[in-house]
Fold:
Amino acid sequence: MSTHLEAVDIGALVRARVEQPDLIAQLAVARRRPEGLTGATGRLMLVAADHTARGALRAGADALAMADRCRMLERLAIALSRPGVDGVLGTADVIEDLLLMGLLDDKVVIGSMNRGGLVGTAFEIDDRFTGYDADAVARMGLQGGKMLLRIDPEDPATAPTLAACGRAVSALADRRLMAMIEPFISHRIDGRVRNDLSTEAVVRSATVAAGLGSSSAYTWLKLPVIDDMEPVLASTTLPVLLLGGEVAADQDAQFTTWSTVLGNPQVRGMVVGRSLLYPPDGDVAGAVDTVVGMM
Structure:
């Protein structure tokens, strides 16, 4: 099998997994690595593709938008081909598909680590590390690992999740690899986990995340964009990446908000998934190019 597929060929991907499973590790070792974490813009622009492993398949009004893997890979291929896109954040299955497609040379690749807090479950806050660990991130030649940290004051599963994230931050720092933490203060409302996006809650979550692990030297925070970002950015000296969040009905207004916050020098880039891969008008390249232009 060729190490580069001209288009998404699900049959070829499956054949490689059946007949040449060792090829994935070989491609990971051979992959050209980027020299740093920032590209031509001086900031980091990543496309997020780790939603599906947590059972989060919705994009906009389509409850199963991300369930079609071929469609998702096609959109990822478009996004990764656009100038200014530095790389991808994903779980092993997605990253390995992209490796087999030959799309990850010179890209920053961040492995998603804890995907155990499945959407809509009673154990959603118990975000177990079911994906990459620090050893696998290093072995596969990735540039770092990402973890989701939801802090629910009323859910005792928060404590072991905090401890596990702290250990992961330390393990990544020991290997001089980025630890990307996405923190929230969360609550159950009518049985569903909801993130508190008030200024106080986002500030509090950022300060807790920044203090995890034996070193913060390699820690970056992935934070949501809220109306009042000044206190949020003032709460930490760590590099901040903006979280793209859900697909917005008014994408122009969403882009305007992002552009304003990107003017802060502490903001070192963006990590955007569904908003770019499944824009309301279907124009993936256009959405990506607009965001890169802001950078």
Residues 158-174 form the longest helix (17 residues). Strands lie at 44-49, 87-90, 108-112, 144-151, 178-189, 192-196, 219-224, 240-243, 267-272. The chain has one domain: 10-294. Confidence is low (pLDDT under 50) at residues 1-6.
